[in-house]
């Protein structure tokens, strides 16, 4: 409970975001349509797939694969990556092997369990956009983007 209160004090919505890319993602995607489910992760993924035109995916949590049947699994480059057991080295390996592209959406599940790895990701030079959404994290490796970190209420 105390952790969540600290998050609320630090977090913002789209009004506190100065990145056009993140502002558009929040206002035209995440905040626009109504919730489809009570689960934040499912909502973020369901709304983001059409917004980013995602076709290929790597989802570690097998229970999520059935929720998104239109995605193709195991083909590269990946449009969306959902990591249940987040490890920065795994993500960087995908980047080095060109398995992800400039607009790949990377979602980290259970952010509270991966705080040490998350902090490494937020400060890593390759990660340009990081969004802490309390229960999940969102990362992008965009070449044209200035490095920015956001704490966002969903």
Features:
alpha/beta
| Fraction of residues in H or I helices | 25-40%
- How many structural units, i.e. domains? 1
Helix count from the secondary structure assignment: 6
Mean pLDDT: 88
Nearest-angstrom radius of gyration?
Answer: 15 Å
Q: Count every beta strand, where a strand is a DSSP E run of 2 or more residues.
A: 7
The largest β sheet comes out as: 7 strands, mixed
Overall geometry: globular
- N→C terminal distance: 17 Å
- Pick out the low-confidence regions: none
Structural class by SSE content = alpha/beta
> What is the ordering of alpha helices and beta strands?
HHHEHEEHEHEEE
Strand order of the largest sheet: 2-1-3-4-6-5-7
Binned strand content: 15-25%
Task: Explain the overall architecture.
- 35% of the residues lie in helices and 21% in strands.
- With 154 residues, the chain is of the alpha/beta class.
- It has one domain.
- The protein has a seven-stranded mixed beta sheet with strand order 2-1-3-4-6-5-7.
- Helix 5 links the parallel strand 3 (78-83) and strand 4 (100-108).
- Helix 2 packs across helix 3.
- It is globular and about 40 Å long.
- The relative contact order is 0.18.
Short structural description:
The protein is an alpha/beta fold. It has helices at 2-10, 20-30, 40-51, 62-65, 88-96, 115-123; strands at residues 56-59, 72-73, 78-83, 100-108, 129-132, 137-140, 148-151.
Give the SSE layout.
Elements: H1 2-10, H2 20-30, H3 40-51, E1 56-59, H4 62-65, E2 72-73, E3 78-83, H5 88-96, E4 100-108, H6 115-123, E5 129-132, E6 137-140, E7 148-151
Helix pairs in contact: 2-3
């Amino acid at each position: 409970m105390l952790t969540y209160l600290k998050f609320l004090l630090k977090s913002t919505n789209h009004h506190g975001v100065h990145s056009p890319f993140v502002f558009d993602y929040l206002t035209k995607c995440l905040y626009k349509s109504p919730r489809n489910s009570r689960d934040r992760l499912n909502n973020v993924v369901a709304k983001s797939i059409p917004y980013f035109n995602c076709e290929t995916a790597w989802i570690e949590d097998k229970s999520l694969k059935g929720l998104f049947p239109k995605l193709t699994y195991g083909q590269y480059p990946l449009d969306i990556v959902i990591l249940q057991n987040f490890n920065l080295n795994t993500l960087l390996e995908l980047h080095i092997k060109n398995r992800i592209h400039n607009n790949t959406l990377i979602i980290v599940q259970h952010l509270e369990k991966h705080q040490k790895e998350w902090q490494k990701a937020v400060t890593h030079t390759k990660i340009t956009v990081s969004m802490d959404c309390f229960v999940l994290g969102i990362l992008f490796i965009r070449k044209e983007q200035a490095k920015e970190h956001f704490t966002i209420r969903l």
